[in-house]
């Protein structure tokens, strides 16, 4: 994987080049496509970033690649951290503060996903995804809270749109992301009086992402684009721009929101499972018994 943004993000975009100078972002899931481009954008605009990941090699490689967009030392990889383990996150926060001195922004983006119907979803499989997405998001914000209180910082949860309606093969993810939205709303209310904003970004079908590779096999891309009201798939730059807005002073009165970045796609339903529903779903469930 390579960086998807470059200097043109600043020269051709609406953002001031030093918008996030002096700021530090703590990112879980920074090895995945969505959180990675969010980090690229913030780093291009002057922030320092700590990338927290489970995989040693991927976390280090991604950090090295993103650091090419900025001055040396702007990106700190913190590998071998599982967001399900609160103590590990506390260590990651301590390492970030030791290196960069502060945390201003948090992207809680670590997530797990695979396609499985209820018959093929073990209790542990369901729990794994809920734990990574929901408990992991809670752990991330809780571990960063002392620093966020000092910086009057801002949190961005990475959610989805598939729990706005019933999406087959995604019960585990829908349940987890509904919880993430609820967590964000509650923390926006609890932490708002302390000067901390909490919001969610909910990406829809974004091309060239791990999510699309996992969830959308075959010639899905063309059909998915046709089903999006704006008649195209999203780009990682779409995610980057909304992320920058939500952390920027332009969003200083934006708190407790969920921003779908999906071209309006969720309003027209679960396009990616249309071919699999209901015939293949029913066959799959029956095959287990
Ligand atoms: N279908 C059904 N069950 C699955 C599955 C699949 N495709 N993949 C994993 N599982 C089950 C496992 O069988 C296991 O359940 P069991 O103990 O009852 O057998 C459970 O999920 C946990 O799997 P494990 O590999 O031990 O967990 P993990 O914590 O190492 O991995 C996952 C978590 C399963 C979410 C894994 O897919 C992952 O690490 N994903 C990270 C990256 C990612 O998904 N990104 C998505 C971005 S959209």
Automatic annotation (TrEMBL):
It holds the Pfam family adh_short_C2. GO terms for biological process: fatty acid catabolic process. Keywords: NADP, Oxidoreductase. It catalyses: a (2E,4E)-dienoyl-CoA + NADPH + H(+) = a 4,5-saturated-(3E)-enoyl-CoA + NADP(+); a (2E,4Z)-dienoyl-CoA + NADPH + H(+) = a 4,5-saturated-(3E)-enoyl-CoA + NADP(+). It is an enzyme of class 1 (oxidoreductase). The keyword NADP applies. CDD domains: TER_DECR_SDR_a (cd05369). Its EC number is 1.3.1.124. One of its GO terms (molecular function) is 2,4-dienoyl-CoA reductase (NADPH) activity. InterPro entries: DECR2-like, NAD(P)-bd_dom_sf, SDR_fam. Signal peptide: none annotated. It comes from the Eukaryota. GO terms for cellular component: peroxisome. PANTHER family: PEROXISOMAL 2,4-DIENOYL-COA REDUCTASE, PEROXISOMAL 2,4-DIENOYL-COA REDUCTASE [(3E)-ENOYL-COA-PRODUCING]. This is 2,4-dienoyl-CoA reductase [(3E)-enoyl-CoA-producing]. The lineage of its organism: Eukaryota, Fungi, Dikarya, Ascomycota, Saccharomycotina.
């Amino acid at each position: 994987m390579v960086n998807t943004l470059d200097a043109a993000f600043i020269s051709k975009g609406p953002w001031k080049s030093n918008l996030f100078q002096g700021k530090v972002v703590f990112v879980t899931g920074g090895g995945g496509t969505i959180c990675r481009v969010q980090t690229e954008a913030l780093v291009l605009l002057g922030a320092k970033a700590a990338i927290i990941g489970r995989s040693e090699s991927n976390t280090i490689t991604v950090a090295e690649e993103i650091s090419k967009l900025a001055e040396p030392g702007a990106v700190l990889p913190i590998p071998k951290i599982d967001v399900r383990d609160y103590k590990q996150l506390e260590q990651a926060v301590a390492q970030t503060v030791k290196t960069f001195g502060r945390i201003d922004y948090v992207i809680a983006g670590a997530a797990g996903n695979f396609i499985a119907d209820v018959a093929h979803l073990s209790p542990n499989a369901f729990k794994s995804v809920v734990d990574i997405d929901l408990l992991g998001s809670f752990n991330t914000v809780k571990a960063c809270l002392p620093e966020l209180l000092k910086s009057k910082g801002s949190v961005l949860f990475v959610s989805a749109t598939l729990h706005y309606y019933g999406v087959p093969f995604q019960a585990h993810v829908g349940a987890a992301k509904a919880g993430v939205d609820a967590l964000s709303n509650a923390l926006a209310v609890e932490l708002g009086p302390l000067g901390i904003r909490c919001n969610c970004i909910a990406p829809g079908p974004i091309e060239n992402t791990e999510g699309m590779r996992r969830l959308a096999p075959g010639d899905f891309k063309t059909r998915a684009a046709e089903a999006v009201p704006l008649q195209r798939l999203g780009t990682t730059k779409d995610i980057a721009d909304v992320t920058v807005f939500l952390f920027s002073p332009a969003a200083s009165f934006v708190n407790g929101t969920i921003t779908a970045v999906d071209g309006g796609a969720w309003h027209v339903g679960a396009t990616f499972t249309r071919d699999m529903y209901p015939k293949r779903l029913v066959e799959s469930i029956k095959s287990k018994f």
